[in-house]
Amino acid sequence: MSEQHLNDGGDENCDEQRPKHKLSDQKRVTDLQLATSPNNNTNNNTNYHLSIMHCVSSPPSSISFNRITHSLRPPKQITTIQCVATTNPPLTSSGGIGKSRADWQSSCAILASKVESQQQNTDKSTDADQITVVNGHTSLDLVPINKLPKPLTISDLSPSPSHGSTLRVAYQGVPGAYSEAAAGKAYPNCDAIPCDQFEVAFQAVELWIADRAVLPVENSLGGSIHRNYDLLLRHRLHIVGEVQLPVHHCLLALPGVRKEYLNRVISHPQALAQCELTLTKLGLNITREAVDDTAGAAEFVAANNLRDTAAIASARAAELYGLEILADGIQDDSSNVTRFVMLAREPIIPRVDIPFKTSIVFAHEQGTSVLFKVLSAFAFRNISLTKIESRPHRNRPIRLVGDENVGTAKHFEYLFYVDFDASMADVRAQNALAEVQEFTSFLRVLGSYPMDMTPWSPSQ
Ligand SMILES: O=C(O)C(=O)C[C@]1(C(=O)O)C=C[C@@H](O)C=C1
């Protein structure tokens, strides 16, 4: 049986500087791929299984197709596609995705589509099964009639896992990454699922492989993690919480290696940025190289027995990958903290009895020039903003402003991400957003969620 893998779209617009190393790691979820294979039917009416991309999340028993693609040679005359959902829900009772690619694929492969020749269809298909192929059978948007989404019940909105007892939480990186620690802080005793990219963590939740994702959005020294701001907009997940993690970096190397032997230090770009001054103070004016995550850097040094390379990572990563700590607490500021958001398929119900924060994103037709008017809706109601971030408006990146005599100016267009200090259950927030909506051409509430109020000390 031949097997063909199709990539899940990827992110052609990725603006993040890609790390130089692609660390090999069988344990991580690497991409969202589904197997494509001919159905071994012995008769002449060849059947083909299609790869399904972007199975949109909804309760496991109801599945909708966002996009289906296929590459088919025979049979040439295809007029009908029959969509078949397997009886297995995306979440397995074994509780947790297996570690191999095969396990990942079988977890993903919740759907199979069968294309049959016209002749075979006329024999077997019922009207309800038949769905007309669109655009010369290269893509289609379908919701099988017998698989329409079920209405949400109150239990769907509950923050508890919808299966078994262990909450499965996707994070970017490998074990020992700060994101894994953040997942554990957000959801103690969770089953943390490593993913090799932020986008994979988003998709793991959308595909019911994970129940939550915990992803970094900003660091007190390095600033915003722009990639996740962009992904928040491109995916339909909701922010249901935040967690702030003190980040305590160590310089790690193979046992016996001294600082003088080093000519390279590798880590996540944020970690390199957070330790820049300290590395210089330590006399380490050596090459810095960015990799996918801090613990992945430690693993890379250990796996390749690199005696000239150090990694910046956590003490736990040193322990996991058998490295020694050459220097401890090398972040440029002792109160180095990274803020992570917790993401889920459903929003939580906002409350007013505990401190809540709300995150929104909006765009304005006249761009930045009237931003102050939008923000005054919050000022007028005494609602404090805790964060504001602007990102390029990719659907409309440039606005031309012309004056015949002077020429044409190009203004860049932005999306504005704002966090404010109020719950969506608070009437002040509702009124502020009603006003903001009047000004804006686009507005989305990313989530209303409890603030992380846990006591924190830099040395934690
Ligand atoms: O590389 C890791 O360990 C991560 O969890 C990622 C990350 C980040 O993206 O900012 C998280 C916290 C630290 O700020 C450094 C890196």
Topology:
Elements: E1 4-6, E2 34-36, E3 38-39, E4 47-56, E5 64-69, E6 80-85, H1 101-108, E7 111-116, H2 118-124, E8 131-132, E9 168-172, H3 178-186, E10 191-195, H4 198-206, E11 212-219, E12 223-224, H5 226-234, E13 238-246, E14 250-253, E15 264-267, H6 269-274, H7 276-281, E16 287-290, H8 294-303, E17 309-313, H9 315-321, E18 324-328, E19 337-344, E20 356-364, H10 371-379, E21 385-392, E22 398-403, E23 407-412, E24 414-420, H11 427-439, E25 440-450
Parallel strand pairs: 9-10, 9-11, 15-16, 15-17
Antiparallel strand pairs: 1-2, 3-4, 4-5, 4-7, 6-7, 6-8, 11-12, 11-19, 13-19, 14-17, 14-18, 20-24, 20-25, 21-24, 22-23
Helix pairs in contact: 8-9, 10-11
Bound molecules: prephenic acid.
How would you concisely characterize the structure shown here?
Helix content is 20%, strand content 31%. The protein has 11 helices and 25 strands.
Descriptive report:
With 460 residues, the protein is an alpha+beta fold. It has 3 domains: 4-147, no CATH class; 157-245 and 340-450, ACT domain (Alpha-Beta Plaits), CATH 3.30.70; 250-330, D-Maltodextrin-Binding Protein, domain 2 (3-Layer(aba) Sandwich), CATH 3.40.190.10. It is 20% helix and 31% strand. The protein has 11 helices and 25 strands. The strands form 6 sheets. Strands 3, 4, 5, 6, 7 and 8 form a 6-stranded antiparallel sheet that branches. Strands 9, 10, 11, 12, 13 and 19 form a 6-stranded mixed sheet that branches. Helix 8 packs parallel to helix 9 (315-321) and helix 10 runs antiparallel to helix 11 (427-439). The radius of gyration is 25 Å and the shape is globular. Mean pLDDT is 72; it is low at 1-143 and 152-158. Bound molecules: prephenic acid. Prephenic acid (PRE) is lined by residues 173, 177-179, 216, 219, 225, 247, 268, 270-271, 293-295, 338. Residues 15-30 have a biased composition (Basic and acidic residues). One of its GO terms (cellular component) is chloroplast stroma. Residues 1-43 are annotated as: Disordered. GO terms for molecular function: arogenate dehydratase activity; prephenate dehydratase activity.
